[in-house]
Structures are given as C-alpha cells and as structure tokens.
Amino acid sequence: MASTRLRRIALVALAGAGSFAGTLVLSSDLLLHSSTAAIISDSPKEVMDEAWQIVFRDYLDTTGNYSEEKWKTLRRDLLSKSYGNTKDAYEAIRGMLGTLDDPYTRFMDPREFKEMEIDTSGELSGVGIQLSLDKDSKELVVVSPIDGSPASRAGVQPQDVITAIDGKSTRGMTTEDAVKLIRGKVGTKVVLELRRGAGQFVTVDLIRDRIELAAVDSSVNVAPNGAKVGYIRLKQFNANAAKDMRNAINELSGEGVSGFVLDLRSNPGGLLMASVEIARQWLDEGVIVSSSTRDGVSDVKRASGRALTKAPLVVLVNEGSASASEILSGAIQDNNRGVVVGKKTFGKGLIQSVRGLSDGSGMTVTIAKYLTPSGKDIHKQGITPDVNANLSKAQAQRLKFEDLGTRNDPQYRV
Predict the structure, then answer these.
(1) Which residue of the set 323, 325, 353, 361 is catalytic?
(2) Catalytic, out of 348, 353, 361, 369
(3) Among 24, 27, 49, 58, whose CB has the most other CB atoms within 10 angstroms?
(4) Span 64-108, pLDDT tens digits
(5) Which domains does the chain have, with CATH numbers?
(6) Annotated catalytic, 29?
(7) What share of the chain is helix, strand, coil (3-state, %, to 5)?
(8) Which pTM was predicted?
(9) Rounded to whole angstroms, how far apart are CA atoms 414 and 411?
(10) Residue 168 annotated among the catalytic residues of the structure
(11) Is residue 334 flagged as an active site residue?
C-alpha cells in the first residue's frame, strides 16, 4: 500500500478563543488507498487528502455533522475534481472542513500556520509592541511596549496611536494587518508614525530584533491591612509560561507575601502542558484535568507533589478566560486550593491537535474533550466562580490596562 508522510507539528492544541495550544504527540504515517495515491501524489490534491485523512482518523464530532459514510463520499467528490493551483485546493479544504460546522477545526495556509507557530513559541521577530484596536475610534493603539524591546528603547509609549507603518496609513487596518507589517526579519527596519496625546506627532525608526514574549506580569501589592499580596497576571499559556510563573512565584515568595492573586482574566488559553505544569506549581496533590477521545481513550494529568507555595490563593476570571485558563482555574477550584472570583468563564472544553501538512500549510482538528477534576464538562457552560464579581459596562470601559491588579480594579478589590 502506498503511503505519504505527513509533517506533524508536535503539538496537541487546546484552542482558546482564537488561539492555539498543544502538547507532544507521536508522529505517524497516513496511508492512502493504492488506487488513488498515484493520482494525487505531488498535486494540490495531496494536501487535501492529508487533511481529509486527519479528520477521518482522529476527529471528535461535537456538532453532529460528521459521519464516516458522508466523509468518504465527500472525499470521492473532491478528488474527482481538477484544481489548477494550491489556492483552489486550499479553498476546497476550507469548504470540506466547513461541513463539520466546528469553529475549532480549521485550515491554515503556510503564512497563517507560521504565524500560529510564532504565537505559541513565546518568541518572535519584531519591535516589541502590544497592540489593540480602539472600539470607538477604530484606531490602532499601543497597549504597552515590551520591556527591553526596540519599541521600548525608542520611547514608544502606552496609548500612542499608530497612524502609519512604513508610510502606509493604518486607517481601516486590523491589528492582524498591522502585525504582519510590523513583524519581519531581525535587523531590518520599520518606520512607525505615532500620534501622542492631543496633537503631538512622532516618527520612530525601529530595527527589528528577536523578542521573547513574557507570559507573566507580577508585582507586590499592599492590602489595606498592611499585608503584602503577590499579584501575578498570566497573559497567555505560551512556551515561556511555566518558567515565567515559577520565577514569579519564587520572587514574590522571597518578598514575603502572605498570599497570591492569580489573574487569568481575558486569557484565551494556549499550550495544554503549560496549564498542567503551572497547576503543578500551585497544587501538591489531586487530579488537574482528564481528557477523552472519540475512541474512549482517556488521559489523566495529576499534581506531582512539588507545589512551590501553600499560601492562600485567589484566581480572577471573566468571560474571556478560556480553554487552558479554564483547566487551571478548574483544577484550583475543584481541589479547594483557592477561591475563584469574577465572572463565568468562556466555556471551551475541547482539545485540538495542530497538524502541519506536507506543503507547509496546517490545520487544527478537534480530537478530544476535557473534564475538570470533579468530572464536569464545561464546554459551552464555563466555570462558575466561587465569588461572583461582575463589572458593569461603565466599570469595564473605565478599567484600563495599567489599572489591572490595583485598587482601581473592582474585581481585584473583592
């Protein structure tokens, strides 16, 4: 029987609200039927069939739109057609996956797949700017320059508005569009035109460099009773997250804090094993998370008896806390390790595998669901906080990035 090898990225993704994550899986060959292998080899159909076979072998149907018979019929229909180029084949793959009606099973062309790899690696080549799109003005606003980055050294400030990138106006530009223009090879230049305050205009020439994405911000805060509280904001579960969390816990413990606040608000998820490793830093014993595939194969992750601290813990969550954030907060809640405060979480309880295809494109495919230690399936349900602390619309609008974890933060004050 003829076969073709699929380049597999060694990730199992736990995709959050628009992000991907993963842990190591074993690579294997995908087998093609000998009657069709010769027809599709070295053609746009080859990548299409790779994607088809991934779903056929591993997909966990959560929408009721998949059946083996329908999937085989779809394969015959797609392979019977002619595709003049890879773009046509990519559109056919997207259409094929679209029949599943699963937003987490999706195709990425080589550029999109590379960006996904960068997002989860914890490192990128750029100038070190965190961007957001203002909801009202639709302008690109600097949230914060990363410490030590080219942007930070050049004096780029939070709330600067980026009006042009290399002479191209940012009017109508999305954050994704801007990121594509700002990122680039180490050593190359990008010119940003900024508006600062009411009417000051600044132009900065920045040389792109290798940027390590810190997953954690931390500080020592003093409570009204004079007690020291360690505040840790976990921004994403990337490849640096467990290391950064370990450093933060140890440094804050060295400062003599009497307890911790772990902020997972608006954290969309990330690497599955990062969430497990971080949970082990807070938990001495107990189940962290369990998962099961369509074949009923289950996997249980447990604490390892090596918690870094036993100090009291509060976890802040909101409707933007998803996926890996829900694994971590669910493990802490179900093991009675800490108190979860905030709003009900997003409700993302599915695991995706991230697969690289032979031409550099890739895809994510739902392969399992996970349960909290108490056995709760939180998909589309979310985790209910122990203490409800909703923000009003006005409070949410007033809460600025720099106010998180301060006395100006209503949920933190709870």
Answers:
(1) 323
(2) 348
(3) 49
(4) 999 999 999 999 999 999 988 899 999 999 999 999 999 899 999
(5) 3-119 (3.30.750.44), 124-212 (2.30.42.10), 216-352+367-413 (3.90.226.10)
(6) no
(7) 30, 30, 45
(8) 0.73
(9) 5
(10) no
(11) yes
